[in-house]
Recover the amino acids of this structure.
């Protein structure tokens, strides 16, 4: 399995609007689009573009959101996950299963409209790691 492009860094926040104000004040950066809900992933999302990647701001959508506990431990928010692209998500999943890595839940459609899954941070040196299939261009 080849380590693919860093698609985004996920940043959990209690308020996407406040985080956008920070990126605007510190870097003059604007959001790549309007925030939107992803109920299947339990988050509200907004992207900020960087020249070679993206920052993915995620806010909990409901009390069962997977980022609720993280925000309880880090109330001001913080760096939550990294996401690498892979060419074939099914092959990537089989690869990591073969290594005995803990895969968190089913493969779902992510914020870019392609399938994603997550590897447990304990199997990735403490970094929650998302794999996403490269979008077709
Ligand atoms: C926008 C959609 C999509 C995209 O397309 O990009 C997304 O990115 S959605 C992002 C949100 N979704 C997810 O995070 C799904 C996968 N996550 C999970 O299944 C869970 O959040 C988790 C990682 C298993 C954590 O479980 P949780 O119940 O929330 O917390 P625990 O306290 O039980 O955590 C266990 C253990 O792991 C450590 N931990 C938790 N979160 C992180 C993290 N983000 N980075 C590093 N380490 C993390 C936590 O500290 C615990 O450690 P110990 O205390 O040492 O046991
Ligand atoms: Co993500």
């Amino acid at each position: 399995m080849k380590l693919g492009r860093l698609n985004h860094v996920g940043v959990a926040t209690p308020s996407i609007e406040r985080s956008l104000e920070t990126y605007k004040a510190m870097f003059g950066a604007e959001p790549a689009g309007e925030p939107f809900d992803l109920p299947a992933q339990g988050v509200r999302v907004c992207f900020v573009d960087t020249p070679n990647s993206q920052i993915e701001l995620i806010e909990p959508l409901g009390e069962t959101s997977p980022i609720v506990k993280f925000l309880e431990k880090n109330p001001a928010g913080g760096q939550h996950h990294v996401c690498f692209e892979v060419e074939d998500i099914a092959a990537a999943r089989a690869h990591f299963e073969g290594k005995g890595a803990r895969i968190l839940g089913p493969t779902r459609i992510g914020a870019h409209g392609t399938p994603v899954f997550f590897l447990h941070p304990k199997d990735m040196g403490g970094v929650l790691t998302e794999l996403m299939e490269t979008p077709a261009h």
Remarks:
- The chain has a mean pLDDT of 97.
- The pocket of LP2KCY5N (ligand 1) is lined by residues 10, 38, 41, 43, 45, 56, 58, 66-67, 69-70, 80-81, 83, 104, 110-111, 116, 118, 120-121, 126, 128, 130 (CB under 6 Å).
- Strands lie at 6-12, 36-38, 43-49, 54-60, 78-86, 103-109, 115-119, 129-133.
